[in-house]
Amino acid sequence: MYNHFSVNTLRTIGLIIGWLLLLSSSIESMVPGNAFYIFPKLNALYGPVFGILIIWLSIERVHPEGYKFFIIFLCFSILTSLIFPILGVLGFLLTVFVLWFFRDPERSPPKQDCIVSPADGVVCKIDQASPPEECNLKDTNFLRVCIFMNVFNVHVNRSPTNAVIKDIIYVAGKFFNASLDKASKDNERNILVLENKKSETFVVVQIAGLIARRILSFVKPAESLSIAQRFGLIRFGSRVDVYLPLNYVTDLKEGAKVVAGESIIARAKS
């Protein structure tokens, strides 16, 4: 139902109407009497608020973590728009950004036996490497696929395969640009060690970025994860590295765009 064509079409129409209402009302608030105003019966405060509400209802799903930021930004925008209209417009745009950042759409994983991407974004590196030393697997090489998420990507992370969580390790660190090589060793990160029914070990590392300041985990050790199940979220720009046994191969190239829970990043060698 979530991904049905007619439902997606209605969402798109809703987003267009919401943006038109928000932008036209914002123009009116900055330039009183502007003839470009599309919705003349709504004043400069109601218009942006209704526009944001329409945009919110048109987004498939917003993660609950985002609602507190949404309420804070919306209240701030309403108050400032009464005093400083231009600052209020900026606040309304940031409110929409918060909604967009915390969107959490449903995903349909492939039915074939494979490894899916744990994150939305762009593949920034593919190589062989040892997992973080905190995993105590440093003498073992893995296939590593690194995925960089910018602030406009969905930031909810998903399990790459059906597995049991053997360990979760949080490491405090710095906040370098997540696309840099040193980010995997120096930045704040959260490490999940997974084991599938074949006793194969997988490691997924959530890495905080330049803007990201908090990694959230929704799971605990010993829990079972289904492929594409949500396990965490990183706020505002970040990276996820996934380490796979060397009996897995990938057809991806650096620069490829991937979708969490749907894009196939590797398969076991036949």
Keywords:
single chain, 270 residues, alpha+beta, Glucose Permease (Domain IIA), eight-stranded antiparallel β-sheet, three-stranded antiparallel β-sheet, 5 helices, 29% helix, elongated
Outline type:
elongated
Strand ordering within the main sheet: 9-5-6-7-11-3-2-13
Rg value: 21 Å
The H-and-E topology, N to C, reads as HHHHEEEEEHEEEEEEEEE
Fold-level CATH name of the largest domain: Glucose Permease (Domain IIA)
Mean pLDDT: 84
- Low confidence ranges: none
Describe it.
It is a single chain. With 270 residues, the chain is of the alpha+beta class. Helices cover 29% and strands 27% of the residues. The protein has an 8-stranded antiparallel beta sheet, with no helix packed on it. Strands 1-14-12 form a 3-stranded antiparallel beta sheet, with no helix packed on it. The protein has a 3-stranded antiparallel beta sheet with strand order 4-10-8, with no helix packed on it. Helix 1 packs antiparallel against helix 2 and helix 2 packs parallel to helix 4.
Map the helices and strands:
Elements: H1 5-30, H2 46-58, H3 67-83, H4 85-101, E1 115-116, E2 121-129, E3 142-149, E4 156-158, E5 163-171, H5 183-186, E6 189-195, E7 201-208, E8 215-217, E9 224-225, E10 230-234, E11 238-244, E12 248-249, E13 257-258, E14 264-268
Antiparallel strand pairs: 1-14, 2-3, 2-13, 3-11, 4-10, 5-6, 5-9, 6-7, 7-11, 8-10, 12-14
